[in-house]
Amino acid sequence: MSKPDIYDDVEVTQGVSPFISMSRRDVIDTLLCGAGVGLFVGILYLLLNTFVFGAVLCRAQQAADCTQAPQYAMIVATVIGAIGGLVALARVRVYRPLFVVRFATISLWASNLLISSYAWYWVLFVLVGLYAVAYMLFAWLARIRSFVLAGIVSIVVLVLVRLVATA
Asked: What is the pTM of this model?
């Protein structure tokens, strides 16, 4: 004979939250990862623009290509920063790190258009802030338990962010 379970006659009516919980520590870790990635992308952008793409594309015989140097530098810096951001978010155990990095990277893809006219210290300051906010926003949206719903909401937010950034 087996013992009767104490829950056999009790109906469990507790629902499951539609969101994955996020502690203060998770919020701080996500903001710090985003700020770190923004700082890294900013420094790498400035270095690549000055010493690699600017030096190669802004020579006398290729002066027409010189306007593309900042764009190429930002693309390379953003891709390398996204890889670093993925590793950093995975190390601090943020929920769905690839989801967060993918949407943050797409939302900030053409950020060189926003920062191209600023001095180097403002470039770093703006990128640190933008990346911290983007990582936090999409980490917060990734908390939605349904992956499909989280994707749809994130796509809508992504479109809104891109419309505001390009306006």
From this structure: 0.85
